[in-house]
Amino acid sequence: MTGRTIVITSGKGGVGKTTTTANIGTGLAMRGHKVVVIDTDIGLRNLDVIMGLENRIVYDLVNVIEGKCKTNQAMIKDKHDHELYLIPAAQTRDKNSVEPEQLRELCAELENDFDYVLIDCPAGIEQGFKNATAAAHEAIIVTTPEVSAIRDADRVIGLLESAGLHRPKLIINRIAPDMVKRGDMMDQKDVENLLAVDVIGLVPADENTVVAANRGVPVVHDRKSGAGAAFMRIAARVDGEDIPLENLEPKTGLFSRFKELVGMNGRAYSHA
After folding, report:
1. How far apart are CA 83 and CA 208, in angstroms?
2. Please, which residues have CB within 8 angstroms of residue 262's CB and are 6 or more apart in sequence?
3. What pTM was computed for the model?
4. What is the pLDDT of residues 32-60, one digit of tens each?
5. What phi, psi does 38 have (nearest 5°)?
6. Where do runs of H (alpha helix) occur along 168-218?
7. Contact partners, residue 227, CB within 8 Å, separation at least 6
8. Is the pLDDT confidence value at 235 over 80?
9. CA proximity to 73, closest of 87, 62, 83
């Protein structure tokens, strides 16, 4: 088996990257794949909470890297009947506890046993980002349709390309269709024009996502949730299935205003 290692990243914190990792990983496992998700946000782990596994942690990623336990000893199996596992981040260490080459070697080892290795990348562009991107072959960027989030996502796209992760995919999270219709929020085309990357998923704003996170059950398990359904479609697209993106009604006004604010002429920042 040669699995796929995918880093899920964002420039700005708080856009739903960890929630996205948990839900894509769960969705892929629900499709019958063997999946491991790795929290690389050392010192600020949260993936275990989103998955409801925080009380099962014995060993963590740094313990594996330092040889204090075997890889499978640090893996926590998901509570549901799927082949889904978590390697949690260390909570009392810092990001310098792991080197890029060490994480690359770990993921190469995991690729022999898993169909998918998903890396939950820390927000920002410092050591944790370098570690996570060094180990991956593919990248998914999570953003929300907000000025600051899109600017930071553009910066991350440039860094991914510099690291050899070309053609990343984009997930636009927390879209409010009513705001889009009113012209108070950018739509898919606006964001695509700004960032010039392919969108792999659109996730609506949904209070069920917050409820699910608080309960430690990824929202893909909620069949009535719009966000849950969106994450399942994203998992299917990651898995190679050709599923059309949802259509959002066109709007006018905000995109032009955004370009005025940042002095743009049809293209985002320099990816520098």
Report:
1. 24
2. 147, 151, 269
3. 0.89
4. 999 999 999 998 899 999 999 999 999 99
5. -120, 125
6. 177-182, 188-195, 207-215
7. 203, 204, 205, 206, 208, 209, 219
8. yes
9. 87
* DSSP H or E run through 172: strand 169-175
What tokens appear for 73 in the block? Answer: 């000893």
**pLDDT for res 267:** 41
Amino acid at 28: L
User: Which residue from 14, 163, 21 is spatially nearest to 89, judged by alpha carbons?
Assistant: 21
The DSSP 8-state label assigned to residue 205 in this structure reads -
What number of other Cβ atoms are within 10 A of residue 113's Cβ? 14
Q: d(Cα 53, Cα 51) in Å, to the nearest integer?
A: 6
Q: In degrees to the nearest 10, what's the CA dihedral of 193, 220, 64, 99?
A: 10
- Can you tell me the distance from the alpha carbon of 133 to that of 140, in angstroms, rounded to the nearest whole number? 11
Q: Which two tokens stand for residue 3?
A: 């699995």
Interval 110-114 mean pLDDT: 98
Instruction: Give CA angle at 145 (19, 160), nearest 5°.
Output: 70
Q: Which residue has the tokens 């960027």?
A: 141
Collapse the DSSP code of 117 into the 3-class scheme (helix H, G, I; strand E, B; otherwise coil) and give the result: strand
Start-to-end Cα distance in the chain:
36
| Mean pLDDT score of the chain | 90
Phi, psi dihedral angles at 148 (to 5 degrees): -65, -40
One DSSP character per residue, 210-272 reads HHHHHHT--GGG-TT-HHHHHHHHHHHHHTT---PPPP-----SHHHHHHHHHT-SSS-----
